[in-house]
Amino acid sequence: MTEQTSRLTQSIGFLLLPGFALMSYASATEPLRAANLLAGQPLYDVTPLSLDGNPVSSSSGAIIPCERLDPTPRHIVFICAGGNPSALGSPDLYAILRQLSRNGVRLGGISGGPFILAAAGLLNGRDFTIHWEHSAALIEAFPHLNPRQARFVLDGNRITCGGGVAPLDMMHALISERMGADFARRVSDWYLHTAVAEPAAPQRASTAERFRVNHPVLLNVLEKMEAAIEQPLDRGQMAMYAGVSQRHLDRLFAGYLNAGYSEVYRNFRLAHAKRLLQQSPLSISEIAVATGFSSTSHFSRAYAAVFGKSPKQERR
Fold first, then answer.
1. Pair 145, 24 in one domain
2. What mean pLDDT is reported for the chain?
3. Both 108 and 216 in a single domain?
4. What mean pLDDT comes out for the span 187-207?
5. For residue 18, which phi and psi values (nearest 5 degrees)?
6. CA–CA separation, 238 and 248 (whole Å)
7. Residue 271 lies in a domain
8. Number of neighbours of residue 283 by Cβ within 10 angstroms
9. Which of 90, 181, 216, 233 could serve as 238's disulfide partner, Cβ 3.0–4.6 Å?
10. Do 11 and 123 belong together in one domain?
């Protein structure tokens, strides 16, 4: 590599944590490979990294050889994490990330990666996002932080992304930032990525699509249920909020969802509890409180009735 070429090349590291999502990793790295091919020169030097330099296995079992993570300055270091990111951090990792930040390295998190940045204290006062599956655990662990449900967020020297195929959109933005919109469009076309999403585009399908209903009152109620997990609203409060009678509210749930108000709300709360059991360090009693149950025993009975195992078994 000539001196002029090395000056043109950006060094980008991807710190892979055990169980990282292969799709997220490929969606982030493949556009960089295509950019090198289309430019006919190495615009990006991509290096997979691990904390100890050993290979890392993805959630699908694919094993990626890695180099050791150290404080050597790079242009960008992305953290790719999935599964239970709260269990993947360590004081050594946080120390290296903070050193990289002091060295002027732009730091990014993909899927559950922003959780690691938050645990290292590197997202304080920042605009950021995280995969919606990990959002609840992050908010419980770091209540002073407020992730956005965006596909990706660029905030100066912090880059965060929801994962999945969203890194394709994020890399389009980063390549455009450096090489111009026309070149970035050529890279996206290489992968038939014709519909590049805006950063603030939603991570999940709308409530109407997920529940296959289009009644405005019912949609409003379902969205309120998802937002009010820790302090659930009873039927009377929800009916007042929606501006309908309790009887009409019951008819909406029976007619459109073939289920009662309490059953649907309970399932929302238990699904939230399952994510916290799998991804957060909170105790079972703390999760019971965080999901609006009056006691740990009540929570355990409700959880076992729906999922066929106790919260303790789920955590094991």
1. yes
2. 92
3. no
4. 87
5. -50, 130
6. 11
7. yes
8. 12
9. 233
10. yes
Which sign, positive or negative, has the C-alpha torsion 213, 169, 157, 101? positive
- The domain that holds 215 is classified in CATH as 1.10.10.60
Whether 197 is in a domain gets the answer no
Question: Judging by beta carbons within 10 Å of its beta carbon (0-12, 13-18, 19+), is residue 10 exposed, middle or buried?
Answer: middle
Contact 266, 276 (CB under 8 A): no
Query: Vertex 246, ends 245 and 247: CA angle to 5°?
Result: 90
| Phi, psi dihedrals of residue 215, rounded to the nearest 5° | -75, 120
Domain for residue 129, yes or no?
yes
C-alpha distance across the termini of the chain, in Å: 50
Collapse the DSSP code of 155 into the 3-class scheme (helix H, G, I; strand E, B; otherwise coil) and give the result.
Answer: strand
Domain assignment of residue 50, given as a range: 3-190
Q: Mind giving me the DSSP string for 57-113?
A: E-TTS-EE--EEP-S---SEEEEEE-S-GGGT--HHHHHHHHHHHHTT-EEEEEETH
Q: Which amino acid is at 97?
A: L
User: Looking at the structure, do residues 98 and 245 belong to the same domain, yes or no?
Assistant: no
Largest CA distance in the chain: 76
Q: Are residues 236 and 174 in the same domain?
A: no
Predicted model pTM: 0.80
Query: Closest by alpha carbon to 157, among 112, 115, 126?
Result: 126
Q: What letter represents residue 218's amino acid?
A: L
